[in-house]
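Escalation from tier 1.

The customer reports that the assembly of two entities below gives different structure tokens on two consecutive runs. Tier 1 could not reproduce it. I'm attaching the input and our single run for tier 2 to review.
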Amino acid sequence: MNIGLLGCGVVGGGILDFCAGREDLTVTKVLVRRPRPDLGALAVTDIADIVNDEAIGIVAEVMGGLHPAYEYICAAMKAGKHVVTANKAVISAYYPELTGLARECGVSLRCTAAVGGGIPWLTNLERCKRLDSICELGGIMNGTTNFIMDAMHASPVSFPEILKQAQELGYAEADPSADIDGDDVRRKLTISANIAFDALVQEEDIPMFGIRTVTDGDIRAFKAHGFVCKLLATAKAAEGGVCAFIEPTLVDSHDLEAAVPKNFNLITYCGEKVGRHSFFGQGAGRYPTAFNAVEDCLDIVAGKPGFYTQAMKPAPVLCGGEAHPYYVRTACPDAFLQSVTVEHWGDGVVTACVSVEEMLRWGRAQLDKDPGCFLAGIR
Amino acid sequence: MNIGLLGCGVVGGGILDFCAGREDLTVTKVLVRRPRPDLGALAVTDIADIVNDEAIGIVAEVMGGLHPAYEYICAAMKAGKHVVTANKAVISAYYPELTGLARECGVSLRCTAAVGGGIPWLTNLERCKRLDSICELGGIMNGTTNFIMDAMHASPVSFPEILKQAQELGYAEADPSADIDGDDVRRKLTISANIAFDALVQEEDIPMFGIRTVTDGDIRAFKAHGFVCKLLATAKAAEGGVCAFIEPTLVDSHDLEAAVPKNFNLITYCGEKVGRHSFFGQGAGRYPTAFNAVEDCLDIVAGKPGFYTQAMKPAPVLCGGEAHPYYVRTACPDAFLQSVTVEHWGDGVVTACVSVEEMLRWGRAQLDKDPGCFLAGIR
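Tier 1 run:
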């Protein structure tokens, strides 16, 4: 089948490499913004050249960003083309529009590379759902923050220092906000939860707290108590909605998540009957991301229809029923924090069980009063 | 599609549960040896009733054992039926015969539940191979031995004592040899390596050393040096064959394998381009094993053809090129062991790099002289 590739950066180049020499998949056109002599006759600069090309069966979008990616994907589907994308932002933001349009147009829409890079996460989630009910999912869904947390546990280093190293190594963007504040994870969690629970969760409804304010002192306190801190995403089926949140989480130092090194991810679902399945691998990078994008193309060639689920019901995010203890460090403890404090760890305190909804709302507000405030759920 | 189920023990019962109420899969006959009033009209006692039933599309074999499972599977395929099996022994022992017959008869043969119970291991290995080359695979492929090793690291307990506990909990068989001596893992490794490398490895060619002789003192020495001992399987592409072996292995206490608890498995492949993917879950049990068997049926309904690979070339097992240090404890050290010893750990020694072929051959011979001898590769 012929592929029209939208974008040819790091991931697009990987897709070209994977397709080279294959008989079942051929990249016949590549949409670029600037002249790319290295692409020879493949390069086109007008999306119409791809959308109107009847010989193209799949449009693979790896440009990133919301616009014009959204418009191009819609145009491709309306022209009867299957779409593969690695773009978590566009799928998360336009989930009902894009999955609805794919259904309407009778085309496949696949985005396995959008969640977990090269990890076969969404495909296995889809497979499990054929037979079992998903009770819960989540885990380590961002390599940049795992790299940072892993390094901070390995040796005493400040957050700004290790962030700089991560940027130099290419593990973090020049503007690291999307990674370290949780937005990247939130997009992946939205897509995963929507597929797992046949839901329509709004990305912005999911509460989150990032790792920007963690200190070397916090890490020392966690290690002293046998914990490792990871940025974890969680989504659970809840009565009348979905419980979903993202927060730094203290896991027992013997837990599987604690052993995830460097920029790797570990993503988990729990099936009602089959129990826990976890998937470990590189959540980003040229070949991992291109791998899942091309695997999606192969699934389309094999006749895999539509999206990962055909169902979606609006689902409010409900985190009031989920409660656990927290570690909190702030220079300005208030009456609420004092009322739930049960223990002191270094500069921080440990609370009794507090609902996730309440604690993350408090944490976001507290950042205005104390921009250095940090909190982490204790599992 | 109608299913004829061969055997209705723990796993067969799970298959009935998963299929109950489905429109795409219906178990219409169940082969049993003894009367089973609970199965009502489903029960038959003659395999011919299933093989000759034209309304049955899939035969699902969960009887276990080599015979008559092999004969029944062959009869089913010859009658044009797709076959799903959870039986690692029969697939490993009759790999060329069964995959060849499936090809000849134009039917599907799936055995995902045979390796890793409920873990989607073989399906993901197959998926990766569509696009990438597998360099290496293996990991923790037996829950019984992981339960034992995990417990021995958690608190001082002798091997016989914890084995007895595992038997009482139903994690180990009354005759535990197949698990603790490595045969069970060897079958799973044979099937995985054959699929990954398009090979025809003979099960009995893979050298192995089990965990039967490990002592609490060994574990103490490993922990003192920052290691955790796991029974690991390994298979690598090698020039002119496949390097495959099974041995207790000392992994860094921070490694992912070290964090695998209880009777869970963690199975890994490394793709040339995509890197490492690991899969964690329950490697045995009613619902996990039934899950993968029924998922195989769904794949067949969706039109998935044949076996996981269509290629196989005879492949000698070559472990001469693979070398690493070993921990060895024996009451009768000989000249060979002394010549490679570089360090002493408690009652044992640590060797320089020794080839796997040489060390495992020496280990098997040494068990005749010193039945309490133990060895473990150091990763």
